[in-house]
Design a protein that fits this description.
25% of the residues lie in helices and 26% in strands. The chain is of the alpha/beta class. It has 3 domains: 55 residues, no CATH class; 119 residues, Dna Topoisomerase Vi A Subunit, Chain: A, domain 2, CATH 3.40.1360.10; 41 residues, no CATH class.
């Protein structure tokens, strides 16, 4: 938790918009957590009516977990909140989040992260808002190769995000298996196209027939020889001088 600058508070004192002081004191039923930044403090009260409060300026490009990411990685998840980032990190995954699911995702940040991670995947809540906003973000970031994964959860208040996924008994291994299935679905069409390019070494392709050779050294084989014909002065030599797989002839 200290790596991500997350602390529990014994007390929080500040002023409201009218300049009046107020104080928040946690209880066993209503704890207060704080995500600390250089110029801000984001309070999280999971069991209170008002769950989030802010002190200072978060800025337009608030991104929790960005500074803690490794230089290179295979998978990066974009979640809906800090709690979900920490749940994934505790299982050994890389994750970040912005201020909320509905917050704008700066393309400049994602662009830089595409050079560091092979897969960048949106992993938002399974409720109505989470599904709608993740689909919207997927469309906005499609040019950067960002994918969208939906967890097999009910979407209820008690079962809607990755934290709930682990809380109800799922493991790191089960989530890895789920992600592999997700990749298989995403790349099924690509793999079908590549299947035709595979070589069966038990049935090698037929050797190409030699067309032109010098001292049994092939200069041109079937399927690897192109003949360019044309009238005199049409530029045949310019097209053939860099390769011995071309021949030319004048048309009269």
């Amino acid at each position: 938790m200290s790596k991500y600058q997350v602390v529990t508070l014994k007390e929080f004192a500040s002023e409201n918009n009218e300049g009046k002081p107020y104080k928040l004191t946690p209880t066993n039923k209503e704890p207060i957590f704080a995500y600390q930044g250089k110029r801000y403090l984001k309070l999280y009260r999971p069991f209170s009516t008002i769950r989030f409060q802010y002190a200072g300026d978060l800025g337009d490009k608030y991104c929790f977990g960005l500074e803690q990411l490794p230089g290179k990685g295979n998978i990066l998840f974009i979640t809906g909140g800090e709690k979900d980032v920490l749940s994934l990190v505790s299982k050994g995954f890389c994750a970040i989040c912005f201020n909320s699911e509905t917050s704008n995702i700066p393309q400049s940040i994602i662009q830089k992260l595409t050079y560091r991670f092979k897969h960048i995947v949106l992993l938002y809540d399974c409720d109505k808002i989470g599904l709608e906003t993740s689909q919207k973000h997927k469309q906005q970031l499609s040019m950067l190769g960002v994918k969208r994964m939906v967890l097999p959860l009910k979407g209820s208040k008690e079962e809607k995000d990755i934290s709930d996924y682990f809380r109800i008994g799922n493991t790191k291994e089960s989530f890895q298996k789920l992600f592999i299935q997700f990749l298989d679905t995403i790349y099924a069409e690509t793999m079908a196209v590549l299947k035709s390019c595979e070589i069966d070494f038990t049935k090698p392709p037929i050797s190409a027939e030699m067309i032109i050779s010098i001292n049994n050294v092939p200069l041109g084989t079937q399927g690897n020889l192109c003949c360019i014909t044309g009238g005199e002065g049409t530029g045949k030599s310019n097209r053939t001088k860099y390769s011995n797989c071309f021949c030319k002839s004048d048309l009269y």
